[in-house]
Amino acid sequence: MNRNENDILKTIFVRMAEDDDTLPDSFQTKTMERIRKESERLQKRNERLQLILPFAALPVIAGLAVAVFIYMDISLPDISFPSISIPVPYLMMGALTLILLVGDIFMRKAYYKKHPF
Predict the structure, then answer these.
(1) What is the Cα–Cα distance from 105 to 67, expressed in whole angstroms?
(2) Are 1 and 36 spatial neighbours (Cβ–Cβ below 8 Å)?
(3) What residues contact 36, with CB distance under 8 A and at least 6 apart?
(4) Between the CA of residue 95 and those of 64, 84, 88, 90, 105, what are the distances in Å?
(5) Tens digits of residue pLDDT in 94-112
(6) pLDDT tens digits, residue range 57-84?
(7) Half-sphere exposure (CA, 13 Å, Cβ side) for 1?
(8) Mean pLDDT of the chain, nearest integer
């Protein structure tokens, strides 16, 4: 939540406290905690959607491209690729580099989650 929302809520709670003294002492604390939890829940939901939607849109876009090719009766040209033989040590080094890169990304994400800026 940003500062303006906190100030608005604070003024509302102050007015409520002035108007009616029957509220429990922990009412403001409990309400702010509920608001914080709801904000965190919505933020996590938005993060999940941002991760899922591109992967969900990919088959739709690919299917649309295939449908256009079929509808327009476009034929793809024949393309031949040269045969390339990659030595096994180079292949292993490439796979190891990829694995280490992915591991580094996950470790940094976990670190920054525990130690925010």
Answers:
(1) 37
(2) yes
(3) 1
(4) 33, 17, 10, 9, 16
(5) 999 999 999 999 999 999 9
(6) 999 999 999 999 888 888 878 888 888 8
(7) 17
(8) 85
